[in-house]
Write a structure and sequence with these properties.
The chain is of the alpha+beta class. About 40% of the residues lie in helices and about 25% in strands. It is built from 21 helices and 31 strands. The strands form eight sheets. Strands 1, 2, 3, 4, 11 and 12 form a six-stranded mixed beta sheet that branches. The protein has a six-stranded mixed beta sheet with strand order 19-18-13-14-15-22, with helices on both faces. Helix 16 (about 630-645) packs antiparallel against helix 17 (about 650-670). The chain starts with a strand and ends with a strand. Bound molecules: adenosine monophosphate.
Amino acid sequence: MKKTIGIDLGTTNSVAAIKKVHTEVIKNSEGEQITPSCVTVRKKAMRAPEFIVGRNALEWLQQEPENTITAVKRLMGRNFNDSEVQELIAGHGLRYKITSHSKGSTNSLAIHAAGKEFTPDEISSKILEKIKNDAEATLGDEVDTAVITVPAYFNDKQKHRTRTAAALAGLKVSRLLPEPTAAAISFGVDTVSGDEGCTVLVFDFGGGTLDLSILTISGGQIIEMGKGGDMWLGGEDIDSLIIDHVLAETAREEEIDDIHSLIENQELSRKNRFLAELKSSVEKSKIALSDRTETFIEIFGLLLDEDGDAFDIEVELKREQFDAMLAPMLASMVRLVRDVISGVHFTDDLIDNILLVGGSSRIPAVIKALQDEFGEKKVLLHDRPMLAIAEGAAILSHRLGDVVECPGCGGEVAREKDICPHCGFDVDAHMVDKGLIDIVHTVAHDYYITLENDERFLLVEKNTPLPCSSTEVFQLINVEQELVHMKFHNVVNDKEESIGDLWLGIDDTDVLDEVEKIPQLEITLSIDENNLVSVEASLLEYPSVGISGTLSRGKADEKLFLSLEQSINDANKKGYDEFVVIDLLRRTRSILHTIRGVVDSVTGEVDESLYKQAEAKITKAVIIAESGETTYTKIYYAEAMIDSYGMLISPALKTRISKRIETLRNVDDDGSYDQTIKEQQKLADILNEPDLDWVHLLMTIEKAVEICHKTDKIKAAQFGSAIDKLIHLLMKGEESVAMEELLQKTMPEVNKVLDAQDRAGMEIHTDLRK
Ligand code: AMP
């Protein structure tokens, strides 16, 4: 039977667990419960690179730090220009290279390893892949589904990227579960039933982050009340404090003026080996200090002094020294806990327990600081703090599976059954006792859409329970508007963060012809239990004209959308005339169609050839608009000639025109700029043949009819009847005096109308208003 498991995909370590009757952590292929979240990419001659994951990758960290990726979770869903990422680059923590992705916008992010670019999702998927494969080997069954935990502060994009990583690893995600909720479940808070509600503060202090969450458990629901913490504070920072101490002590003992330069100047492989050894020895000592009162950090014969002689590092670290070192960090940690409590307007007595999980919460000084502040009884340390989150995820994955465990006899009961087939226990009546509780998550931020003049419209408010959706009707700016650019954003910590764009091309010319009043667009923004955002938009009066999908932010199509937006802004600045604008709009719709296929909506994989095609189409649209050599107005004109006055054109000439139109259309879609111009000329040459002189004249009068329809209905009717009379006379096959007279009377009027027509630039509208 296929299995479903729980995965704690951590910054430093990852853990997998499964719940059968009891919850068990699944050992990896190295026989360990914890898999370091570390990936080494190894170049292979003539072959795809090899990925080494976990403990073995940590070993490569010494030899190939530039190809070994640690803490990829910090980069998930992040942009290269994010201050957090820039901070990471500027700090000393990052030994591999990151840049913006060559296939993405300046905001995208690529990790460089073994001479290739990888997205954080791709690297993260390698960790998940190992967990899946190892779990399958250990369990002897296929593992196809998982509950994966994510930090409570992950935004939609970061969650989406986690889903993508799972999809790339071949795992279905049955739920993305906030880590604090998983921790609370592993403490058994779900056994609280009926009216006995309780409120807990989950204190998750891991390798990279401090994650705080207040959860209320009541009536079979877990409700997130508030969250906080510091995503840049964890065990690694504690290691750095000890490293600084060890280096300062060594410098003092060995009388070295500048120990950092000394390390920097060691031969590269020696330096890397030393730094890795230092880190590992410091971490071991830190862990040892949780159970002992003193420890030693020792590294023998690795560093060379200025004369090239090896010397040893031997530094003693006592618990009191360590506690003193930690004091400022502990103070800010307590402040962060206070901030979360006051953020939800709670007092301490409303918090029943502070639940400690994460490896760093084992540190006695951490436990003591919390006990001193909130009272000894309130603070509970998990028995297995580093495994708690995976265990919580496993419990939920089990509940979400097809079978549940009977509270009466412990046997398996199909989920849809009310009564246990083994012991007759009324499973349905004991939903809460059995632990089948609902987890209610809420929206973490406000969601806005940007309207005309940069106005913001609130679509979904923070703290709305998930899943939720909001439907609003907006108006286009203009009756003839053919493009709508919907831009969405969040407000996170008072800062606007774009969550992506969606474009609608209204290419149903029948609709536009019919429309008399400004069309209305109905937009529905939905957020599911996993915080995944999707948008549906359609014209209220013409529901078939619409678009739906997830948003583009940070994906390869974002860069294409940005250049498209740029080309439209430029066109508006230059004020192109109507013909150019019509042509550009037609091209834009075709470009949007191409862009839509660029990113696979499930795996996020990029179709390179479509990406290039879209890029080329945008460049061509810009050149054609600048040159004024429009294709589509020429095609529309030729088609309109045949449609309206085909009876005046010989069948042979009609066939030649149709063939030219077809070739021009194909070349315009796929060909180069030069080929397009050449084909345009060939069509123009046929249309210039003398046999079509009369038809051009009729087309000119028809243009005047079109203009007068809006401004002078009587004149429109007069021109219309002139067209009918002319056709009638032309069909008779002779050019008569009556025709001459009619033309002499009509044409000066027609020319007056056409000359008066405002040929000033036409603006391309893409906005909405409420
Ligand atoms: P986690 O992110 O929950 O896997 O926690 C990993 C972090 O916990 C690493 O920084 C470890 O060094 C740290 N850690 C693990 N065990 C202990 C311990 N007994 N005492 C102090 N820190 C620990």
